[in-house]
Task: structure prediction
Amino acid sequence: MIIIPAIDLKDGECVRLLQGKKEMVTSYSKDPVAVAKRWVEEGASLIHIVDLDGAFSGTQKNIESIRNIRKSVDVPLEVGGGIRDMDRIGELLSIGIDRIILGTSAVKNPELVKNASEKYPGRILVGIDARDGNVAVKGWEEITEIDAMEFALKVQELGAAGIIYTDISRDGMLTGPDIEETRAMTEVLEIPVIASGGISSLDDIKKLMDIRGLWGAITGKALYTGKISLSEAIRLTGENG
Result:
């Protein structure tokens, strides 16, 4: 299991939200490039970037910040938030982004997952953000009646290269990850699963490591608040994939 530090971008700054609520935002840095460099220096082998403005509006607003991060670090980057069509996927890949995360667009337009996965095999992930087992969209502002597990199986069939599973009630809350649902995802799916949301300590990471087959875990707020040292977390997991 690998540890993946998160950079959430809003108005060009590195921020974190509580439970995805845009009015509950804390800015941790006005220099996302410096943050990305710090994570690489501490041993990150992959960085998770979300354009929050894009997630809420459907149009990416932080493309310059993403471009600057790409120019500044030499580890793989995965990007999500507001990616709604093949043109934007192509644009991000053309500037050197390694993996694309589809969220709302995967729910609203499953054909996009299929087409993008066929054109860019191994590079299209689907972010499944859930509350009480149901998928959330549009920056988590809208809760659908779609069952998260059923949707995960569907996008696997469509060719997605992996799933990022987030329990949004835990995100930014430092209350611990959703171990049960994450384990269920890894048991049912054949594609890689990445856990996200709620990680608050090295103990939480140890619990996730006990989930057989879990590919990775994304952490953000715990790093920014100093509750977890990225280098210590990486040493703990051994980054053995």
